[in-house]
Amino acid sequence: MEIGLAITKIMYMKAGKAGNVAAHLKHSLEYICNEAKTENRSLVGGINCLPDYAYEQMIGTKEMFGQVGGRQGYHFIISLKPGEGTTEQMYDIVQRFAEEFLGGEYEAVFAVHTDKDHLHSHLVFNSVNMINGRKYAVSYTHLRAHETTLHLV
Predict the structure, then answer these.
(1) Smallest Cα–Cα separation from 147: which of 15, 7, 2?
(2) How many secondary structure helices (H) and strands (E) does the chain include?
(3) Chain segment 45-67, per-residue pLDDT in tens
(4) Distance (Å, rounded) from C-alpha 93 to C-alpha 107?
(5) Do 147 and 120 touch, CB atoms closer than 8 A?
(6) What is the pTM of this model?
(7) How far apart are CA 2 and CA 68, in angstroms?
(8) Which of 43, 63, 53 is nearest to 113 (CA)?
């Protein structure tokens, strides 16, 4: 079965107010892991972090490299057309996309949501590279995401 993928949104999370600069990152992680949208979290996974502790691990990476300000993370949404694919296929797609796209150098959480008439997945990842401490470069994000997705189908 051919599946027509689309990256429907690529968003970044900027720093919040002085009290909690990473509030947007925390909210995004909580949103994508919502039990009501992910079949009681059975469709949630992590790369280089445990989903239940991802926020704390990402903050630890930021602090370790002195990168606590500015952009906090990125949030991608990958969607299928209504009636396309299964939850298992979508989970596999988002997991493989994250692994290939991030190259094992970022903490990431991904989840498949089943709350709409179409399957879609979310990928939230830390803006700070856990290997070298550099912030993620966004200049080729859209092109690279599109190219990587094509290899997964």
Answers:
(1) 7
(2) 4, 5
(3) 999 999 999 999 999 999 999 99
(4) 18
(5) no
(6) 0.88
(7) 42
(8) 43
